[in-house]
């Protein structure tokens, strides 16, 4: 059981847009329920919106408010992330302060991820 967050940071002009895809594994009597949600952190730095939620079971939508709160906390703790990424050149460099794994290729940012258990 647990959640896996994968992130993508895109640059739009002078702004960065941080989006996250969340995969959630939960077990019940019938087996595993897997849900996926996608969030977008908008450039104004104040809003986080639930973009889409995909689940195999209808009641999976009840997971959305909890996932949104988790993502908002991560965003608040990563305000300096965009500045730090500008200096990232090594593949697989680790952003230890916040526990993000930064994946780069030839100095270009590809994605970052964090596993929450």
From TrEMBL:
<protein>
    <recommendedName>
        <fullName>N-acetyltransferase domain-containing protein</fullName>
    </recommendedName>
</protein>
<dbReference type="InterPro" id="IPR016181">
    <property type="entry name" value="Acyl_CoA_acyltransferase"/>
</dbReference>
């Amino acid at each position: 059981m647990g959640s896996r967050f994968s992130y993508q940071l895109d640059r739009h002009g002078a702004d960065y847009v941080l989006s996250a895809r969340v995969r959630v594994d939960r077990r019940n009597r019938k087996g595993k329920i897997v849900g996926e949600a996608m969030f977008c952190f908008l450039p104004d730095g104040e809003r986080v919106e639930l973009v889409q939620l995909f689940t195999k079971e209808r009641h999976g939508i009840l997971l959305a408010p909890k996932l949104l709160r988790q993502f908002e906390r991560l965003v608040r703790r990563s305000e300096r992330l965009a500045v730090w990424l500008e200096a990232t050149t090594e593949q697989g460099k680790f952003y230890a302060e916040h526990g993000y794994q930064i994946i780069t290729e030839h100095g270009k940012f590809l994605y970052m991820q964090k596993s929450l258990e």
